[in-house]
Write a structure and sequence with these properties.
heterodimer; A: 166 residues; alpha/beta; Rossmann fold; 2 domains; 6 helices; B: 546 residues; alpha+beta; Sulfite Reductase Hemoprotein, domain 2; Sulfite Reductase Hemoprotein, domain 1; 5-stranded antiparallel beta sheet; 16 helices; 36% helix
């Protein structure tokens, strides 16, 4: 995990946690509408009402998708994240907005790999939250990609641990 | 019944530590109440009128004696010596201190229990038929599927902030004892023409302020696609369920507004996509879970004869016992509805006793019913009389299952911060009235359900007689509904007309019962007579000639 001492600015985001080692996109994310019209943009911001599947024809030119959580109680962004990962998107997937400690582990499982909360999160509490779950029951976006060194056994479901990997 | 392995235990233990940490951060001021609220709700902790209320999950209503003893101990140690069994087959405690909650969850984890997702905008505890694994009429025990769904829905990362709460029920018989079609998803396990088991999905039912009966969305989902199809149903809801208005956020509104056909089309599309994602558990997992629900060691060739020479006992057998698939056994229901009692309440002493009886008479198993009673699922007929005598001695032998005194009631204004009117005192008065005038014993099956507000926790829409408490210019007022049913003949009750005050509605229920007694034909239940003769005769009796 790369933590806040290595944060950098992208647009208006202050990225506090980032689980990637590639270079960050250096221009601000644009709305879905302008992204689809603009052939050179590599960063887009999804709002809760946007359809993540509108991005699927353009995944090859995307390096950053920001998913905005205007309120932490609006969970549409979790589905958006999984849909992008299920479609094979491997670029950065950043949760922005009202991102709180207790959402981090779930967001990670849905495929988010960077986090830029409106208000900075307590470093120790956040690290504890990322490492909270010893296992996971169900497959999600982390199931294929993560290494087994990580918490939650790399997203390998309990169901698979019980019966052996197929 | 199901037992945790090291994985299940580790997850529940991690949850206890998480909640302990969340409570610490709340008490340290690192979390605002608005931020803490969804977290405590997802651990079953509500702030009510007088104190915190903790709702503990009883997955598909099944408990062993060790767990029931632990529930009694919690009532003694952290509450006021009693608990309240709910219409979701759970138990709740009404006088909890926030700082005790993590310790209570730790006590629960020691007996393989928890309060995970018993509240909040997430997938709630999965409910089922209280006679599962015992009923003569089921095609299979529905609980392995409920358990698989429990695991799938626990900490599901995509569905932690749904538009609204989400309730799933699983049954496996034509007879519906779990109000299946009044759930967000109702699943009935069926057998097809070639003998394979599969799942019917009814989606978009519910009670609340806009009651709806779920339409059939898919008539046969193969069991090795059960989780994938469920995930598709939930994803469409999470993405498109309304979030602009809390009162229109349940999936029933989505299905209603887009239409069942369009919802089905979208689910099918998502389902086709998810089938390629490999999210279904290995079939071996379902087989592993099934091994926990194999029949207990029933004795063979037991007699079906019951000595009915004690008339009080014979009445209890007729009313409170249900046919079992194994010769010589019955499922016996312990009524938590004594005359004048609080529906669904049990003292710690009664819980300890029921735990002992489950161990002694029912292969260490008991069940919570959605009608707020307790079932001993596997009792030898030859031992029924001994069981009944113990129940009688301890105030648990009331012979009123599905009778007018077996009232479902929400906690109402005595506890609940949402309520407009009290439910409990009304239930007490009605049961006392029908005991005192002797009519209760003549009415047969009559399901009476009371809610203290429009949210319908007391299932008033689904009562043969339903009562809804409202606030009318600062006074408690009660509307009367007739003709609802939560069974396989699901229907929604209709309001009779203007409401009544508390005593007035007790009189009104009696008048409605009198019309039934006067007009019933051979073998008709109250509901059948109502359906045959319609609302008018009841209206005339209640409000006089127009």
């Amino acid at each position: 995990m790369i933590s806040s001492d290595q944060t950098d600015w992208t647009g208006l985001d202050e990225v506090q946690f980032r689980f990637r080692d590639d270079t960050m996109v250096d221009h601000p994310a644009v709305t879905v509408d302008s992204f689809v019209d603009q052939s050179n943009a590599a960063a887009v911001r999804l709002e809760p009402g946007d359809n993540a599947r509108d991005l699927l024809p353009h995944l090859d030119r995307l390096a950053l998708v920001e998913v905005n959580f205007p309120a932490f109680t609006d969970g549409r962004g979790y589905s958006a994240a999984r849909i992008l990962r299920e479609a094979g998107y491997t670029g950065e997937l950043r949760a922005v907005g009202d991102v709180l400690i207790d959402q981090l582990a779930y967001m990670r499982r849905c495929g988010f790999d960077s986090f830029a909360a409106d208000r900075p999160l307590d470093e120790a509490d956040a690290k504890a939250a990322f490492a909270r779950w010893p296992y996971v029951y169900q497959p999600a976006a982390d199931t294929q990609s993560a290494s087994s060194e990580e918490p939650s056994h790399g997203g390998v479901p309990i169901w698979t641990l019980r019966h052996g990997r197929s | 019944m199901y037992k945790y392995d090291q994985y299940d235990q580790a997850m529940v233990d991690a949850r206890v530590e998480e909640f302990r940490d969340q409570t610490r951060r709340r008490l340290e001021g690192k979390l605002t109440e608005d931020q803490f609220k969804p977290l405590r709700l997802m651990n079953g902790l509500y702030l009510q009128l007088h104190a915190y209320m903790l709702r503990v999950a009883v997955p598909y209503g099944t408990l062993d004696s060790r767990q029931m003893h632990a529930l009694a101990d919690i009532a003694d140690k952290y509450d006021r010596g009693y608990g309240h069994f709910t219409t979701r087959q759970n138990i709740q405690y009404n006088w909890i201190k926030l700082e005790d909650a993590p310790d209570i969850l730790a006590d629960l984890a020691k007996v393989e229990m928890h309060a995970i997702q018993t509240s909040g905008n997430c997938i709630r505890n999965i409910s089922s038929d209280q006679f599962a694994g015992a009923a003569a009429d089921e095609v299979t025990d529905p609980r392995p599927y409920a358990e698989l769904l429990r695991q799938w829905s626990s900490f599901h990362p995509e569905f932690v902030a749904l538009p609204r709460k989400f309730k799933i029920a699983v049954i496996a018989s034509e007879t519906d004892r779990a109000a299946m079609k009044l759930h967000d998803i109702g699943i009935r396990i069926v057998r097809n023409d070639v003998g394979e088991l599969g799942a019917q999905f009814y989606v978009g039912g519910g009670m609340g302020r806009t009651p709806m009966i779920a339409p059939l969305i898919r008539d046969f989902v193969p069991l090795d696609q059960l989780i994938t199809y469920s995930e598709a149903c939930l994803r469409v809801y999470n993405r498109y369920g309304r979030r602009d208005n809390k009162f229109k956020a349940r999936i029933k509104i989505l299905v209603h507004e887009m239409g069942a056909d369009e919802y089905r089309r979208q689910v099918d599309e998502e389902f086709a996509h998810l089938l390629g994602q490999g999210i279904e558990p290995p079939f071996a997992e379902l087989e592993r879970i099934r091994t926990y629900f194999e029949d207990p060691a029933f004795k063979d060739r037991l007699s079906d004869t019951v000595d009915r020479s004690d008339p009080d006992f014979a009445l209890w057998v007729d009313r409170n016992c249900h046919a079992h698939k194994q010769a010589g056994y019955v499922s016996a229901t312990i009524s938590l509805k004594p005359v004048g009692g609080i529906p669904g309440d049990a003292s710690a002493a009664q819980m300890h006793l029921m735990a002992e009886l489950a161990r002694e008479y029912s292969f260490d198993e008991c069940r919570v019913t959605h009608a707020q009673n307790i079932v001993l699922p596997h009792v030898e007929k030859a031992r029924l009389y001994a069981l009944w005598q113990v129940l009688e001695e301890n105030g648990l032998g009331t012979a009123n299952l599905d009778q007018v005194g077996d009232i479902i009631a929400c906690p109402g204004l005595d506890y609940c911060s949402l309520a407009n009117a009290r439910s409990i005192p009304l239930a007490q008065k009605i049961s006392q009235r029908f005991a005192a005038n002797g009519k209760g014993d003549t009415l047969g099956e009559l399901k009476l359900k009371i809610s203290g507000c429009i949210n319908a926790c007391g299932h008033h829409h689904a009562g043969h007689i339903g009562i809804l408490g409202v606030d009318r210019k600062g006074r408690e007022n009660y509307q009367l509904l007739l003709g609802g049913s939560e069974a396989e003949d699901t229907s929604l009750g209709k309001i009779t007309g203007p409401g009544f005050d508390e005593d007035g509605v007790v009189d009104a229920v009696e008048k409605a019962a009198d019309i039934y007694l006067a007009r019933r034909e051979d073998g008709e239940r109250f509901l059948d007579t109502y359906r045959r003769i319609g609302m008018e005769p009841f209206k005339e009796a209640l409000y006089g000639q127009a």
